[in-house]
Amino acid sequence: MPLIPEEPQIHEKAQGPRATPASGRTAPTPRPVPGPRPAAPPRPGRPGPLRPTPPAQRTSRDVAPAVPGPSGPATPAAPAATAAGPQIQLIPASPEGALDAAEEAVDLLLDSGRTPGEVLVVTTGEPHPWAAHELSFGDAAYWAQHDAGDDVFYADAAVADRAAARPVVVVALNGGPEPAAVTALSAAHSRAGALLIVCGDPQRINSVLGASA
Question: How far apart are CA 173 and CA 193, in angstroms?
Fold first, then answer.
């Protein structure tokens, strides 16, 4: 009796992932996940002013004046005007260094919290470079800067009496004839609301103050 070969036993293998969904349709190809979008290129800035930037022109400070906290020490108050007029501070300086001393005084005023529009600087000799620059555009443009009242204004002693009053006036005795110094100090004293700073030779300042009294 011939032997019937035994049918090989078929073992079911573990099925792998389906190539097609149960419905028989082909599975859609997954879309790649988009990465981060590139940053947009910066927009071109607005064109600058047609007028060149004046030399040493003042602008408001980026750092705001310190405000005392609830438990912190109080910020020293600015000198107050007395009944007889503004407080006067003298800064010894030679005629050649008086303008630099005035610039340092303005820097300290702005650092202490004064805004640029509160300060007027009067010169008795060579005009400040900012004033010379603005006057090159004409007298009307120069005084328009004064009327705007948002920046430190520089004036020669000859036109100081035309400037409006400001809380602080700084006088630089940087040369010039004696009458110019007398005019500058007289105008500065009448226009300083709280503080008058005079930069120059102490002996000359005392003599000029005596002459202008």
Answer: 20
Alpha carbon distance 141, 135 (integer Å): 7
Strands 153-156 and 192-200: unpaired
Backbone angles phi, psi at 201, to 5 degrees: -70, 125
pLDDT digits (tens, 9 = 90+) for 150-193: 999 999 999 999 999 999 999 999 999 989 999 999 999 999 99
**In this predicted model, what pLDDT tens digit does every residue of 34-50 receive, in sequence order?**
333 344 344 333 333 43
Query: Measured between alpha carbons, how far is residue 94 from residues 99, 107, 126, 195, 203 in Å?
Result: 9, 19, 14, 21, 11
The token duo for 196 is 């008058």
> Of 167, 82, 161, which is closest to residue 120 (Cα–Cα)?
167
DSSP, res 121: E
CA distance linking residue 212 with residue 120, whole number of Å: 19
pTM above 0.90, yes or no: no
